[in-house]
Amino acid sequence: MPIKIPNNLPATNILEGENIFVMYENRAYSQDIRPLKILLLNLMPTKITTETQLLRLLGNSPLQVDVDFIYTATYSPTNTPQEHLIKFYETFDAVKSKKYDGMIITGAPVEQMPFEKVAYWDELCKIMEWSKTHVYSTFHICWGAQAGLYYHYGIPKHDLPQKMFGIFPHQKCVIEEEKLFRGLDDIFYVPHSRHTEIRREDIEKVPAVRILAQSAMAGVYAVADRKGRQIFITGHSEYDPLTLKAEYDRDVAQGLPIHVPCNYYPNDDPAQTPVVIWRSTANLLFSNWLNYYVYQETPFDLSRL
């Protein structure tokens, strides 16, 4: 089944070129099924890149997905054309009366700042509080996961001695079958790119959540509440093949302290083409979330949320 996105969104041509089934708005409106309503709060500066990465994964599903895009009104993005924001994005005030099957809160390049010092922190808190009553399942990514764990449960983030940067092996932590990781290998790989972490000992103090997966190298990876209404993912399964390369090349060019991303280039040689070993994990992760935590659980009538 297709993902429905606005007519003329820049991601459309890219996704169609990859044989992702995309349905334009005017065609979707003629069908009699109810698509899943997903809200994407895009906090990344390069919004077109991030929305394309996430739409690629949401579109690889047998479910029809209807996506709304929002950005924070209290901070004006500088790396996304204003005309793109005007055409495809809204602010929270424009959608706060609606209800959604699911929501994604992306990461943001503000992780080394205290949460309360982030320009849009108060607005983000309002959105996360609103999600408790207007969204069935919220999927937090990287800094978005750290922010969500801090806001909902008071779980802090901690600085790392050096950037967690590369592709790392992970394992599930729960003995019983966890639907979010159904179909994944016993060891699966995920990209990470961050300067901070959340720690197991802090999470274990909060009975309302549990750790679902972790990495011996990268630490805690997946945390969720007991019903899957709030899911927190510390890595970036959505990354494109060359995303880490772009970050590495940028930091090298700026003279910043950065090591070659782990398990990314063959023989750790940046002159070689990176090998993708996380794509199947990314597709299963998002399709499992859409199916088991959104589609299977959300009432057909969203007003009953």
From TrEMBL:
Annotated source species: Methylomusa anaerophila
Q: Which residues bind substrate?
A: 163, 193, 250
Under the heading CDD domains, the entry gives: GATase1_HTS (cd03131)
**HAMAP family in alphabetical order:** MetA_acyltransf (MF_00295)
Q: What is this protein called?
A: Homoserine O-acetyltransferase
NCBIfam families per record = metA
Q: Which GO terms describe its biological process?
A: L-methionine biosynthetic process from homoserine via O-succinyl-L-homoserine and cystathionine
Q: What is the lineage of its organism?
A: Bacteria, Bacillati, Bacillota, Negativicutes, Selenomonadales
Looking up Pfam families in the UniProt record yields: HTS
Residues flagged as site, Important for substrate specificity: 193
Role: Transfers an acetyl group from acetyl-CoA to L-homoserine, forming acetyl-L-homoserine.
Active-site feature positions? 142, 236, 238
Q: What class of enzyme is it?
A: transferase
